[in-house]
Amino acid sequence: MVYTELRLGAESFDQCRYDGSKLLLRGPRRDLNGDYVACLGGTETFARFVARPYPDLLEEALGVTCVNFGWPNAGIDVFRSDAALMDCASRARLCVLQVPNAINLSNMYYRVHPRRNDRVLEATDAMRALFPRVDFTEFSFTRHMLTRLRARYPEEFLYLCKELRSVWTAGMEDMLGRIDAPVVLLWLSLRRPEEHLDRPDLGADPGLVDRDMLSRLRPLVSDIVEVSFSNAVDRKGVEPIETALGSDAHVDTAAALQSVLSTHLQT
User: Fold this and answer.
1) What are phi and psi of 148, to 5 degrees?
2) From first to last of its 267 residues, what are the pLDDT tens digits of the chain?
3) How far apart are the first and last CA of the chain?
4) Closest CA to 144 of 202, 75, 78, 73
5) Whole-number CA gyration radius for the chain
6) What are the two backbone dihedrals, phi and then psi, of residue 12, each rounded to the nearest 5 degrees?
7) Could you tell me where the beta strands, DSSP code E, fall in the chain?
8) How far apart are CA 171 and CA 158, in angstroms?
9) What is the dihedral of CA 130, 171, 2, 49, to 10 degrees?
10) Alpha-carbon span 164 to 209, nearest angstrom
């Protein structure tokens, strides 16, 4: 068992690992021997700058332990490659899975770091062939790289988008198949799934994911809860979503999940 402490303004919170997982998650460490709700997600679920993220608020409202398995910038790769964490999710009464973006995952065009999924490890030969005039050594982060490629080479970028969406869908289907517990998908974003369909959206997570992609997963999950904060930031200037989704947003998210999860917990 590993504990560390992160400072949150004047406050602090523990971090811990669960049952052999490699990820140092937000604490305090919760007891997994009884009933619990597993909350898997990315930056918004981890909520480094929020004193009481939505898993804490849900636990208080439901009277059931809710475990924060959030990991900053998490994509599909980091979760499904962590067998211990997948086992923790499978043993839960319910699993809330925040919809990850389709940017931070390895694909035929580039590979990402296995745990820091927002980091680009390398561009593949296919990527260099698609964008022959680009020096990929200047990119360390997926969003920066994709934003630049979209601006400079919009036609070629569409091929990359198609690949990312295809890999995301297959990866989500695979991950959902590994979780034995009923799964409630959580759309938590600065936009609605159908917004900005006229252009690939990179500014607000889950990047590149749209309504059609969500619909394809509907038969594999118990429910889908959508929480959108379209007016939370000025979309002309992108702000970090972790900053934009503050305490009030987590209160709203917990409230939206509470009614749905209460119904499933009673069955």
Assistant:
1) -65, -40
2) 333 444 554 346 788 999 889 899 998 899 999 999 999 999 999 998 899 999 999 999 999 999 999 999 999 999 999 999 999 999 999 999 999 999 999 999 999 999 999 999 999 999 999 999 999 999 999 999 999 999 999 999 999 999 999 999 999 999 999 999 999 999 999 889 987 654 555 777 899 999 999 999 999 999 999 999 865 444 443 444 444 578 999 999 999 999 999 999 987
3) 34
4) 202
5) 18
6) -150, 160
7) 3-8, 11-16, 25-26, 36-41, 65-70, 94-98, 110-112, 120-123, 183-189, 223-228
8) 20
9) 70
10) 10
Contact 245, 232 (CB under 8 A): yes
> How is residue 49 written in tokens?
């700058």
Q: How many residues appear in the chain?
A: 267
pTM of structure: 0.89
